[in-house]
Specification:
alpha+beta; single chain; five-stranded parallel beta sheet; eight-stranded antiparallel beta sheet; about 30% helix; Rossmann fold; globular
């Protein structure tokens, strides 16, 4: 087992890893930028190393600084969390070259699944259902136009190196294709330095449902059931739940089997998520694979009593998994609490938190790195907390979330708590009747 793990991340996920390390008797090392000197992950780690100034390009994305921090502290493993370098093949390879275990996917796995076009080709070979679309990168606009006609509108243009909704365009008719092609490529080039595109049939009335998987170094994988992530704004998830209110026992079995098949085909090692789109007829299609821990992993942990971070560390240390598939025993919902103003287009609202009172009681979990007096820096993602509730049924979980949101007091900055309060009372959400298009018609009440 590892003696020291460096966490190459910040905020709540860094603190989450530190807690499991402490419980396993493993020393933890926090890294931080100058903007994060007062963050709780820095205070609670066994050691902490400043790796640069506030901009992430000069700190959390600076591979040489992180490797240097690991070497001077004698870390024998690095946990990347999510975001930043978690799915960076170069960083995974760099850790290997410096004989530091990367607690995540190998460079080969990241490369095979990180590029959406190659990931789709891999999944087709594995026998996993995929959305009809182009085979690999589209050479030029003429080829794009031909494919769009073949698949019939509506279609979806996607950047192969995309993420967070960048480089994606829904095209409903032929006349819109040229503008969509040009703007998507331009956006992808600016965001990722890569303007390669592929095209898929647009799935109407889609649900975004993902399957949590874990694979070990012996080629065995299992799944931990599904999460419904359909409540999104600009392809960014706002809330998640498990089990999905849209799922049937038959669909859960089929999607779980497909996710395990995908993981075992690529001999996946570690925790990962196979993401699917499910249409209005309950047909499901592979969308992408995240080769890392997910923001929303706590709801899975809560419904099956399973520490995913602990499992990541054990698998990385060479411990085999049981191979057992898990089904949810309860219902859990997560609301992402962001420092954003939901009344003004969810614009970021960094600043100083003057009051922070977290809700409590049975079935309530808060994952956060902030506190009263904490200054939220403008340099990073705006998520400041995750509120997770767990109950016997979905109805009970919604009622518990309402109560918890009413108790949650954050003053000094705007947050998305008012949005979540309204969401929990929305008749379509309460009925489980929502798709990824839900937010397009949602308006905040005054």
């Amino acid at each position: 087992m590892f003696k020291k793990i460096l966490i190459a991340n910040r905020g709540e996920i860094a603190l989450r890893v530190i807690r499991t390390c402490r419980e396993m008797g493993i020393k933890s090392i926090a890294v931080y930028s100058t903007a994060d000197a007062e963050s709780l992950h820095v205070k609670f780690a066994d050691e902490a190393v400043c790796i640069g100034p506030a901009p992430s390009s000069e700190s959390y994305l600076k591979m040489s600084n992180i490797i240097a921090a690991a070497e001077i502290t004698n870390a024998d493993a690095i946990h990347p969390g999510y975001g930043f370098l978690a799915e960076n093949a170069k960083f995974s390879k760099l850790c290997e070259e410096h004989e530091i275990k990367f607690i995540g996917a190998s460079a080969e796995m990241i490369n095979s699944m990180g590029d959406k076009a190659s990931a789709k080709a891999t999944m087709i070979a594995a026998g996993v259902p995929c959305i009809p679309g182009s085979e690999g990168i589209i050479e030029n606009f003429e080829a794009c136009e031909k494919l769009a006609t073949e698949f019939k509108y509506p279609v979806m243009l996607k950047a192969t190196a995309g993420g967070g909704g960048k480089g994606m365009r829904a095209v409903w008719k032929k006349e819109e294709l040229r503008d969509a092609w040009d703007s998507a490529r331009q956006e992808a080039k600016a965001a990722f330095g890569n303007d390669d595109m592929y095209l898929e049939k647009l799935i109407e009335e889609p649900r975004h449902i993902e399957i949590q998987i874990v694979g070990d170094s012996f080629g065995k994988a299992c799944h931990l059931s599904e999460r419904d992530c359909s409540i999104q704004r600009r392809h960014q998830k706002l809330t998640e739940e498990t089990p999905s209110p849209y799922m049937t026992d038959k669909l859960r079995l089929a999607m779980g089997d497909a996710a395990v098949k995908a993981a075992e085909y690529i001999k996946y090692e570690g925790a990962g998520t196979v993401e699917f789109l499910v249409d209005k007829h309950r047909n499901f299609y592979f969308m992408e694979m995240n080769t890392r821990i997910q923001v929303e992993h706590p709801i899975t942990e809560e419904v099956i009593n399973y520490d995913l971070i602990r499992e990541q560390i054990l698998v990385a240390a060479g411990v085999p998994i049981s191979g057992k598939n898990y089904l949810p025993k309860m219902h859990s919902i997560e609301c992402r609490i962001n420092a954003e103003d939901p009344y003004h287009g969810f614009r970021p609202a960094p600043g100083k938190i003057t009051t922070f009172h977290a809700p409590g009681g049975h079935g309530i979990r808060i994952d956060t790195h902030v506190y009263a007096g904490y200054m939220i820096p403008p340099n990073y993602d705006s998520m400041i907390a995750k509120l997770i509730v767990t109950a016997q049924t979905r109805e009970e979980a919604i009622n518990k979330m309402k109560r918890a949101l009413d108790e949650f007091v954050i003053e000094g900055v705007k947050t998305t708590i008012p949005f979540h309060r309204q969401l929990m009372n929305h008749p379509d959400y309460v009925a489980g009747n929502y798709t990824t298009k839900f937010m397009e018609d949602f308006e905040m009440d005054a």
